[in-house]
Write a structure and sequence with these properties.
The structure holds three protein chains of three kinds. Chain A is an alpha/beta fold. Helix content of chain A is 36%, strand content 26%. In chain A, strand 1 and strand 2 form a beta hairpin. The radius of gyration of chain A is 18 Å and the shape is globular. Chain B has two domains: 108 residues, Periplasmic binding protein-like II (D-Maltodextrin-Binding Protein, domain 2), CATH 3.40.190.10; 128 residues, D-Maltodextrin-Binding Protein, domain 2. In chain B, strand 1, helix 2 and strand 2 form a beta-alpha-beta unit. In chain B, helix 9 packs across helix 10. The chains are: A alpha/beta, B alpha/beta, C mainly alpha. Chains B and C meet through helix 1, helix 2, strand 2, helix 3 and helix 4 of B and helix 1, helix 5, helix 11, helix 16 and helix 18 of C.
């Protein structure tokens, strides 16, 4: 499994001020798979996700120990660059957050900031990314209309297209369907499974059926600790820990 | 219940500010005014005349404990207008009434309380000590632009004067310039203090001000028929120093009551001493 | 449904609020609620009309006295006449040099102020740590509190000297000096309002951009600033209003020669602005003379220019918003993005993003440094020269010997009365107008005219307010020179600032909050008063703070309406005149030779007073900000 690990944490601890939010997390995320993180609210799953592309840097009071390795390199190392890390490890948020620009400009934003300026190249990237996010057919005739005119599900797929456009290796998704209806959710889930052919996806979800449907690996977190991490089928059919079993059978959370 | 939380929230916030004002002003408020019963007059107008009115008020109120005299500036025309409209009891002006004003307020009575001399001032570092009236005219109408044309250093002359509504400028224009136009690049200020500040900091500048404004500047002597006449009190009084003009207080009709007493006080010996003490030329005695 | 969410208030069932038999017909309680709602709406409407009425009166009073000059000279030759020489042997009333002077001085001031302000605003909102922010933000706001007379004398003493020596000119009084001074005066206004706008760009936009690997600077440049464009536009309009309307400071440093610079780019040429003309000539001009009418004509021209500038700016801002619908109010258009692109292209193309970020942050730190240095120099000048004059007697005594002796207590109290009264008048009016504009109406012709009226008021020079106060309140209404006349005049002057800042902060409250309240059956007024206004308070307070600073330091509006030079007493009623610090300072500096220590002492006290007001207000605001975060 080692050579196929893309993202790995070692004894990762994180504090928000006095609050110890992540405790000794050690986990390896395999390449080109979908990994789900589940657990009750406040268990630290979103925090762990945000550690993986240094979005937690934005919170002044956060403090971190341990390592997060991306392709064997520590992303918190002194000379590692948070911006470069985020270029390689994209993120999709709970609430769709397209910029108040056109659909085209939203997708072109990433390539532009990374130095792509030629119109033809941008057009190609926009088209490919939108196709990759299964949105192209719905928006190809109105690329220059405002992104905020799209429906919630379309907006979220646009956000996915937006991250695809910078060609990341990993896409982190923080409850990407929690604001969407079942049909939109279904589309995103299909998309996630398809994305795993070329990308590594880590998804935080509240919805255990969703984890079961889309992921190959699942981690269960509880009160800042990673209780169990294994193949999804095992977690749901034969969990090794009682806590995990209690959670997935709905006894708490 | 409607709006209760608004008033709650806003009050706290606004109170923070308002209380800071009203309470602060209220608590420290030492002497409450006792205007009831006592007589009050207001004096307003030219800031040139204001020092006379103000110093006279201080002295006058010492001997008339119940009198309340309120002095404010604003300019000659404010003084004329206020007296004409009846919003002030006494007006002050450093210029005579314009025909429009005299026509609009026929009841206005002038009281000539003092004279003001006009000094020509330059930077203290300037080597020029005296000018003839012709040279001054040349400087102000723009034919003379460098100090070396009047025996000074090779420095461009920065011409500084009063604004076009000023009585001082009007007088200067008539007396010195003989109604020629001022040079267009003349820098204009609306107060003696402004001109004094400007000249004291600009090596090439020349300006004209009232008698008191000599701090940090050099007052020039006027060359009258070959003799230098310094602007001393004596020489101004004896009219040897040629540039001076009258200052007036105004009332609507003949004054009575407190206004009468106050004006009489200014015209008295004690009042005229006050006039001299604030650097104007007494008209009596 | 089975599991209860933790609610802040324990749920006690519906019975507590509503009788079971009540249907959806309005019960009597409901009817009262709706009645209140209706009445409040009508009241707010009436208040909002107030701005229009005021503008109407100002225009009527200006035209009443100004139209004769046009009868005399003709519109065209008044506007384009090359000579302004009312006291000449052949009087000439050509306003062209004055118009050109105003345009030049304001334009250069904006060229200086806008980059510095926006740089500073971005630095405060995006780059500075919380501790740095809490020092810089109030420091910048403090700049707004320095009275214009103080700026003027600072300019006369230091700035013009510096220009004269540094550029080897015969005189430092110049277009450049005026522009620098106006820039310093406009910076706090632009910075504060722009900073609020930048701060209210939603966090999700930032995160979305950062998650794509954008640098902090790329995020600021391409997402945050475009998102805050409408607020930044408003900030610039406000700042420009302050610059165009400034009288007392600008007339002390521009030299006031009514000439058009030759060549037109000669920044060292003396110039004369429209406001400067009013400022230096209005006090002495003969009422009813042609010169007097000409000055009112100048005031009308000034108003028209203000109106044109404001409308143009407003149009630009609304264009920018228009194309990005339905994004509620944050907007970016292709135009704006092209501008930002073009502006940064030479930068971004050659230089890698990280280097350009370093460069940009350096520039912004530099602009903060320049702003703080300006503040430092002015403060040092006042403190060094003024602290020595401060004694107990100076603070508590009454003036004597023309202010060369004694104290300034009546002036301190008078200023507090005037500003307190102005705020008591303007704050309720301003908040009510803003609430009406944002919450009650769409974008109809009426709203547009109210907004235009507010803009016009904002651009109306303080000296014009002073003239209006004198003509309308003192003479026409018969108040006489009195405290109440001054309070109303000052109140009118600060009204637009309060309206604009309140509007901005109401706009930043997300619509979902209102919907959440309506969904609980709250009426409009309940929603506004309980849900919308409380989180908008910090923004409203910013407006109030800026207004206090402005009102406390103004001379022109109270000069003809409310003040006396000296008094032994505090006023016992609203109809008596008062002393005031800025006016006292003005007289000491212009008409009392040999009162230098008292002059700086008065400036120092005025500054301390404004500073403590600011401090109190900033503390209140900080408390609210914390409460909002919790």
């Amino acid at each position: 499994m080692d050579n196929s690990t893309i993202l790995e944490t070692r004894d990762l601890n994180l504090w928000y001020g006095q609050k110890h939010a992540l405790i000794d997390i050690t986990v390896r995320i395999p390449k080109k798979t979908v990994t789900a993180l589940i657990g009750p609210s406040g268990c630290g799953k979103s925090t762990l996700l945000r550690c993986c592309n240094r979005m937690n840097d934005l919170i002044d009071s956060s403090r971190i120990t341990g390592n997060v390795l991306f392709n064997g390199e520590d992303i918190y190392d002194g000379h590692a660059d948070a911006y470069a890390v985020r270029e390689k490890i994209g993120m999709v948020f709970q609430k769709p957050n397209p910029f108040p620009k056109s659909i085209y400009e939203n997708v072109a934003y990433g390539p532009r900031i990374h130095g792509v300026r030629e119109k033809g190249a941008l057009d190609r990237i926009v088209e490919e990314s939108l196709k990759g996010a299964a949105l192209w057919d719905e928006v190809k005739d109105r690329l220059h209309e405002p992104a905020l005119a799209l429906s919630g599900g379309q907006q979220q797929r646009l956000c996915i297209a937006r991250s695809l456009a910078v060609e990341p290796e990993v896409i982190l998704m923080d409850e990407p369907c929690s604001a969407l209806d079942p049909i939109a959710t279904g589309k995103i889930e299909d998309l996630i499974i398809r994305l795993a052919r070329n990308y590594t996806v880590v998804i935080v979800t509240h919805n255990m059926q969703q984890a079961a449907r889309v992921s190959e690996y699942t981690g269960f977190m509880y009160m800042g600790e990673l209780i169990e991490f294994d193949e999804t089928s095992r977690i749901f059919e034969d969990p090794g820990e009682e806590l995990t079993e209690n959670y997935i059978t709905g006894r708490f959370g | 219940m409607t709006g209760k939380s608004l008033s709650g929230a806003t009050t706290v916030a606004v109170a923070g500010i308002l209380v800071a004002f009203l309470v602060a002003a209220g608590c420290v408020g030492g002497q409450p005014s006792d205007s009831s019963g006592s007589q009050q007059i207001t004096v307003t107008g030219s800031t040139t005349v204001l020092p006379i009115a103000e110093k006279a008020r201080e002295a006058f109120e010492e001997s008339h404990a119940s009198a309340g005299i309120m002095v404010s500036g604003g300019g000659s025309s404010v003084g004329i207008k206020a007296v004409g409209e009846g919003t002030a009891d006494i007006g002050m002006t450093s210029r005579d009434l314009k025909p429009e004003e005299a026509a609009g307020y026929p009841g206005i009575v002038r009281h000539h309380v003092a004279d003001d001399a006009i000094l020509l001032i330059v930077h203290p570092g300037n080597t020029v000590d005296r000018l003839t009236l012709d040279e001054v005219r040349g400087i102000y109408n723009g034919t003379c632009t460098n100090w070396n044309q009047v025996g000074g250093p090779d420095t461009q002359i920065v011409v500084v004067g009063r604004d076009s509504a000023s009585g001082t400028r009007e007088f200067f224009s008539e007396y010195v310039l003989e109604s020629e136009d001022f040079v267009k690049t003349q820098e204009e200020f609306n107060s003696n203090g402004g001109i004094q500040q400007k000249v004291s900091r600009t090596p090439g500048a020349i300006g004209y001000v009232g008698l008191g404004y000599t701090e940090g500047v050099k007052a020039l002597a006027l060359d009258v028929d070959g003799t230098a006449v310094e602007p001393t009190l004596e020489k101004i009084k004896s009219k040897h120093y040629p540039i001076s003009r009258p200052l007036y207080m105004l009332t609507n009709g003949e004054p009575d009551g407190l206004a009468r007493q106050y004006l009489d006080f200014i015209m008295s010996g004690e009042g005229q001493e006050i006039v001299a003490s604030v650097d104007y030329i007494p008209v009596q005695g | 449904m089975k599991k209860e969410q933790a609610a802040p208030v324990p749920f006690r069932g519906f019975g507590r609020f509503r009788r079971p038999e009540a249907g959806i017909d309005p019960s009597s309680a409901g009817a009262t609620r709706q009645l209140v709602d209706k009445i409040v709406g009508k009241l707010l409407f009436l208040v909002a009309l107030f701005a229009i009425i005021t503008v109407f009166f100002i225009i009527v009073f200006l035209l009443r006295d100004g139209y004769q000059i046009v009868l005399e000279t003709g519109v065209w030759s008044f506007l384009t006449g090359p000579d302004w020489n009312p006291a000449g042997y052949n009087p000439a009333y050509g306003a062209l040099p004055l118009i050109v002077g105003t345009v030049l001085v304001t334009a250069l001031a904006m060229v200086i102020a806008v980059p510095l302000s926006i740089g500073t605003a971005i630095y405060i909102a995006e780059i500075a740590g919380p501790r740095t922010r809490e020092v810089i933000k109030p420091a910048v706001e403090l700049l707004a509190g320095i009275p214009s007379v103080v700026y003027g004398f600072f300019g006369l003493i230091l700035l013009t000297d510096w220009i004269r020596i540094a550029f080897d000119q015969p005189s430092g009084s110049s277009w450049l000096a005026g522009s620098i001074l106006l820039a310093i005066m406009a910076i706090p206004t632009i910075t504060s309002v722009a900073e609020d706008a930048i701060g209210s760009v939603p966090r999700e936009f930032r995160e979305g951009s950062l998650a794509l690997g954008a640098t902090h600077w790329q995020t600021i440049r391409m997402v945050v600033v475009p998102g805050a464009l409408s607020g930044i536009g408003a900030a610039i309009i406000l700042g420009m209003g302050r610059a165009i309307g400034e009288t007392m400071a600008v007339l002390m440093v521009t030299g006031n020669a009514a000439v058009i610079p030759d060549p037109i780019t000669d920044v060292f040429s003396p110039v004369r602005t429209l406001t400067g003309t009013l400022g230096i000539e209005m006090g002495e001009v003969a009422f009813g003379s042609l010169h007097y009418h000409a000055l009112f004509g100048v005031a009308v021209v000034l108003l028209v220019i203000t109106l044109v500038v404001n409308s143009a700016a407003r149009l630009i801002v609304s264009r920018m918003q228009g194309t990005a619908r339905p994004g509620p109010h944050r907007a970016l258009t292709a135009v704006a993005s092209r501008i930002t692109h073009a502006a940064s292209a030479p930068f971004g193309r050659v230089v890698p993003p990280r280097t350009s970020q370093r460069g940009a942050f350096l520039l912004m730190s530099l602009s903060v440094a320049i702003v703080l240095a300006a503040l430092g120099v002015i403060l040092a000048e006042i403190v060094v020269n003024g602290a020595g004059a401060i004694t107990w007697e100076f603070l508590t005594g009454t003036p004597s010997d023309l202010g060369r002796e004694g104290g300034i207590f009546p002036a301190i109290a008078g200023t507090l009365y005037l500003v307190g009264g102005a705020l008591a008048i303007a704050l309720p009016l301003g908040i009510a107008t803003a609430v009406y504009l944002i919450e009650y109406t769409g974008d109809g012709p009426l709203t547009r005219s109210i907004r235009a009226a507010v803009d016009l008021l904002n651009g109306t020079p303080s000296i014009v307010f002073g003239l209006f106060g004198f003509a309308f309140l003192v003479l026409f209404m018969g108040f006489g020179v009195s405290m109440i006349a001054g309070q109303i005049t000052l109140g009118l002057m600060i009204l637009p600032t309060i309206i604009r800042t309140t509007e901005e902060s109401l706009r930043s409250i997300p619509g979902s909050l209102r919907e959440g309240s309506y969904a609980l059956g709250a009426t409009k007024w309940q929603t506004i008063s309980r849900v919308v206004l409380p989180p908008a308070l910090p923004g409203i307070l910013t407006g109030a703070i800026l207004s206090i600073g402005r009102a406390a330091g103004e001379t022109a509006p109270i000069m003809f309406t409310a003040v006396i030079f000296s008094s032994r007493h505090l006023p016992s009623s609203l109809t008596e005149p008062v002393m005031a610090l800025p006016y006292h300072l003005f007289i000491l500096t212009t008409s009392v030779p040999g009162a230098s220590a008292q002059k700086f002492g008065t400036a120092f006290v005025l500054l301390l007073l404004v500073l403590s007001i600011y401090l109190a207000a900033i503390l209140v605001r900080r408390r609210y900000n914390h409460a909002k975060v919790m």
